[in-house]
Write a structure and sequence with these properties.
single chain; 84 residues; mainly alpha; 5 helices; 60% helix; 0% strand; binds zinc ion
């Protein structure tokens, strides 16, 4: 295996795990999926306007906000958030 190829692979792997890479992948995945009517995180209704504004949306605005701020701790952030 050549050094160049290793280098390229490393760059690709790094890109995949950077936030920008994740966002790019998510954007592609989301564009292929319908928006959710119910937040996957807390079960709250997602307004129709938000479903249209964010194709493939899975989270309500509150959960999305938390997720973006605590993306590293996404699972914990989601679990700690309940609109009850
Ligand atoms: Zn939510």
């Amino acid at each position: 295996m050549s050094e160049d190829l290793n280098d390229e692979m490393a760059q690709v792997s790094t890109a995949i795990f950077t936030q920008r890479g994740i966002d790019a992948i998510r954007a592609k995945v989301h564009s292929l999926r319908p928006s959710k009517e119910i937040c996957e995180c807390c079960g709250a209704d997602i307004p129709a306007a938000r479903q249209l504004a964010v194709p493939g949306v899975e989270l309500c605005a509150a959960c999305q906000d938390v997720k973006e701020k605590q993306d590293v701790h996404r699972a914990a952030g989601c679990r700690g958030l309940h609109h009850v």
